[in-house]
Amino acid sequence: MPTKTRQQLLVILALTAIGLFAGDRLVLNPLMNTWTARAKRIAKLKEQVEDGRRLLTRDQILRSRWNEWSRRTLTNDLSAAEQQIFNTIDRWSQETGVTITAITPLANQSRRDQESYATYDCRIDATGDMGKLSRFLYSAEREPMALKMQSVELGARDKEGQVLSLGLQISGLILNSSAK
To answer: Is the full-model pTM beyond 0.90?
Structure first.
């Protein structure tokens, strides 16, 4: 093969190799990355659509649950909400025989955590024996009203441990009208 033809062939092969390398780096890799990202996004969107379909099939159940839960919250009027909690605590004490020594609204009694809800926090101090206090705590825990026990403190009031004191901090949920 003549030298000139061999040089031309080598130049053509070198340019082809450079072109293929550049095509791989500048065209093929970006396209592959784009397709991979697109496939992941499509998979994520399909999953979100499927989640939406599942929610739509459970729409009535979820709405009825939300309505039930929102009925259990405290009223928007702070004094009426306070009265609801006091009446509930009084009912617990009458059912269990516990003596309520104090009900103290906390300093941040109506804490606005977000626009859609607030909480009413108070501390209950009570005395009684172990059985009465455990029934009192059980009543508080089983209460259908939207109340949460924040803290529980037990202490002995006598040397034998027959009379106990209970310190219970609870929070009541207040939903704004738009959230209900």
So the answer is: no
Residue 110: name the closest of 75, 144, 149 by CA.
75
Q: In terms of domains, do 53 and 79 share one?
A: no
Mean per-residue pLDDT for 46-66?
A: 92
**Does 46 reside within a domain?**
yes
Q: With bands split at pLDDT 50, 70 and 90, how would you rate the model's confidence at 109?
A: very low
* SS3 of the chain: CCHHHHHHHHHHHHHHHHHHHHHHHHHHHHHHHHHHHHHHHHHHHHHHHHHHHHHHHCHHHHHHHHHHHHHCCECCCHHHHHHHHHHHHHHHHHHHCCEEEEEEEEEEEEEECCCCEEEEEEEEEEEECHHHHHHHHHHHHHCCCCEEEEEEEEEECCCCCCCEEEEEEEEEEEECCCCC
Q: Which of 64, 57, 60 lies closest to 49, judged by CA?
A: 57
Range of the domain at 16: 3-57
Residue 69 domain-assigned (yes or no):
no
